[in-house]
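Listing S7. Sequence submitted for prediction.
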Amino acid sequence: MVKQIDRREKMPSVRRLTAILAADVAGYSRLMGADEEGTHERLKSLRRELVDPKIAEHHGRIVKTTGDGMLVEFGSVVDAVRCAVEVQRMMVDRNAEIPEDKRITFRIGVNLGDVIADDDDIYGDGVNIAARLEALAEPGGICISQVVHDQIRDKLPYPFDDMGEQSVKNIARPVRAYAMNPAAVALSAPVAASAPPGSTRRRTSPRRVTANQRAQRRST
């Protein structure tokens, strides 16, 4: 007798190496306490107009969101860091004319790690370390792990300062962290996004000049 497959059965979890970006809003409770509806609407607008398009541009996938934050995964750690810097850089311009007590400011952490992928969610120390790095970042800044720094240091021009080893909650070993502060973010220049996987750039060859065209040019 052939057993029928129940499509409702849960697919087994798998492991994969991925770049993880964790972000949250600094001072979110204070902002909500001062203006709950206004803060909620501004955050929705920021995601719709800035954050989500940048994530898509750099080939990221939003794993989940919370009231004040999100977890995003990238196939490339370079794309993850580039996305983080560009979001923070654009936030500087966005907040320029907003009163300081109403500004929405992100903290971002980026890690590269082996994670458990279960349905559409991801779990494991790789995710936890990204969240701890985000907590170490200054408002408007970015904090990355040593493995991320090793991968991007010859590929991206961003200045990250060595914070040394940090003891973080629920992680057995100290984590070596590197930080990019808000002032460095504000001075950063845009870096072109990488091409989507499988895409190719068209190569243009120099235009050929025929003998007749050369003769016409000499006669004029």
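Caption to Listing S7: primary sequence and predicted structure tokens for the chain studied. The chain is about 35% helix and 25% strand. Helices lie at 28-34, 36-57, 77-95, 125-136, 146-152, 182-187, 211-219.
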